[in-house]
């Protein structure tokens, strides 16, 4: 019997929990068994590929999960240390379901699992993860796997190193040969980019000099949290770019599936601008191959800058707007056969990478685009960063619905039109143009506000007005 409640650690898209209080060998072995029974065996998958990050607990947990899978006669390929997008590569290239042990940017005390079907297709709450959770809980409540009948043959376990193949595949998708030499500072945050960046960029075809920051794999994150979404975690990178006179800087999160960019002056480049830049390149590649631009689709979420769909439409392609979250992006990409998808959280998805997200491939696009012209990165991205943005602002609100209603009433009085695809988006098309998004957190009484406008003054006025309305109940109290 176990006291662990898997409902506390199995989230909407993955598994996250404290080690060993919530995740230990017994728990992940049960999750492996459930994964085999719910996902692998019904779809007659060829097997499962398992990778892990640099956290101290990851190798043991990965082996325990593999053992739970193998009980059911399913073969397991262990790829060892890997970034999350390296695991997705293995899932696609080997045509196997996958499990990646990582807690991404969470602190050292945590670990987790990201699961996928073969071809890196996601496994979330609505696509099998809830069933995996419930079956694993049933097994744990009855003493684990000890009473399970075993098949005639347990699954075979083998080890395969896919790092070189992963790196070569990425280089085959973006050609940097012929570009001007670049100096790039890379902050790996002691995460898995310290493992993958040298494999990808330290190659004769890469006219790139890398200045490494925190490439030592260390799951205690001794220098700063491996979450570049937090501005203070970019400060070392920003200073190093200026100090070395580098052309740009790249920062990766702990499992290296997200990539953030700073320009030659150490200024952050918004993920929306990177989305627009990469979209333009992917559309151009399709057109060069003979595609009609109108047949090319690119997915973006509701909080991406207005510059993203404008860029896509200006090139004759089709912007597809979707809700925030990788399951929604991937579903829309598959439905529309989109060549690319981007989120404002710096997740970038590629058709040619099994519709999965890879920060490294987005980084290669930025390097290639910069190397193909003589100007600085700040000039290159200026065309894609044409609006003033607030960034995400969180407010703790007791009555979310009432706060949203107040903001909506105010915005409609200003001539804005409502959209409720994902939370509330209010858009005013008349000059001065502005829009804002209010999205409620799924787990906390928080409202997340994003504002964008034609100019900084308007953005600040709208931001302050909406924040005042959202936080009105607290001020009144």
From TrEMBL:
Boundaries of every Alpha-D-phosphohexomutase C-terminal domain copy: 392-467
Cofactor(s) annotated in UniProt: Mg(2+)
Pfam families reported in the protein's UniProt record: PGM_PMM_I, PGM_PMM_II, PGM_PMM_III, PGM_PMM_IV
Source superkingdom: Bacteria
Keywords per UniProt: Isomerase, Magnesium, Metal-binding, Phosphoprotein
SUPFAM superfamilies: Phosphoglucomutase, C-terminal domain, Phosphoglucomutase, first 3 domains
Domain Alpha-D-phosphohexomutase alpha/beta/alpha: 10-126, 166-266, 276-387
Bilayer-spanning residue ranges: none
UniProt family annotation: Belongs to the phosphohexose mutase family.
Protein name as annotated: Phosphomannomutase/phosphoglucomutase
Organism: Ornithinimicrobium kibberense
């Amino acid at each position: 019997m176990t006291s662990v409640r898997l409902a506390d650690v199995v989230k909407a898209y993955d598994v996250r929990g404290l080690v060993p209080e919530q995740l230990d060998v017994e728990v992940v072995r049960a999750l492996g068994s459930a994964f085999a029974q719910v996902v692998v065996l019904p779809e007659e998958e060829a097997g499962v590929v398992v990778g892990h990050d640099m956290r101290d607990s990851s190798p043991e947990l990965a082996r325990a999960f593999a053992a739970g899978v193998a009980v059911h006669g399913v073969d397991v390929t262990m790829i060892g240390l890997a970034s999350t997008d390296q695991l997705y590569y293995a899932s696609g290239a080997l045509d196997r379901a996958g499990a990646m042990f990582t807690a991404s940017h969470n602190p050292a005390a945590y670990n987790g699992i990201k699961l996928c079907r073969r071809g890196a297709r996601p496994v979330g709450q609505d696509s099998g993860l809830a069933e995996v959770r419930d079956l694993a809980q049933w097994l744990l409540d009855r003493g684990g796997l000890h009473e399970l009948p075993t098949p005639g043959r347990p699954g075979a376990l083998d080890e395969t190193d896919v790092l070189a193949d992963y790196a070569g595949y990425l280089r085959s998708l973006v050609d940097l040969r012929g570009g001007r030499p670049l100096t790039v500072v890379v902050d790996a945050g002691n995460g898995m980019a310290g493992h993958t960046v040298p494999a990808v960029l330290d190659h004769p075809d890469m006219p790139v000099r890398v200045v490494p920051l925190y490439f030592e794999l260390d799951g205690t994150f001794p220098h700063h949290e491996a979450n570049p979404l937090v501005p203070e975690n970019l400060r070392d990178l920003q200073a190093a770019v200026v100090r070395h006179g580098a052309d740009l800087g790249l920062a990766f999160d702990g499992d290296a599936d997200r990539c953030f960019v700073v320009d030659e002056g150490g200024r952050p480049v918004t993920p929306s601008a990177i989305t627009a830049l990469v979209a333009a390149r992917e559309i151009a590649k399709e057109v060069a191959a003979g595609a009609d631009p109108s047949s090319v689709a690119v997915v973006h979420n509701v909080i991406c800058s207005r510059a993203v769909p404008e860029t896509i439409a200006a090139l004759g392609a089709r912007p597809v707007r979707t809700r925030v979250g990788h399951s929604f992006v991937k579903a829309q990409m598959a439905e529309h056969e989109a060549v690319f998808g981007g989120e404002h959280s710096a997740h970038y998805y590629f058709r040619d990478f099994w519709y999965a997200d890879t920060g490294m491939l987005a980084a290669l696009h930025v390097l290639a685009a910069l190397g193909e012209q003589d100007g600085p990165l700040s000039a290159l991205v200026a065309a894609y960063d044409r609006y003033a943005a607030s960034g995400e602002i969180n407010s703790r609100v007791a009555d979310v619905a009432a706060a949203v209603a107040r903001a909506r009433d105010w915005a409609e009085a200003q001539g804005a039109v409502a959209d409720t695809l994902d939370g509330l988006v209010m858009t005013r098309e008349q000059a001065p143009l502005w829009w804002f998004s209010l999205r409620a957190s799924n787990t906390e009484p928080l409202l997340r506000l994003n504002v964008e406008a034609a100019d900084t003054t308007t953005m600040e006025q709208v931001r302050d007005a909406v924040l005042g309305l959202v936080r009105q109940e607290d001020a009144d109290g």
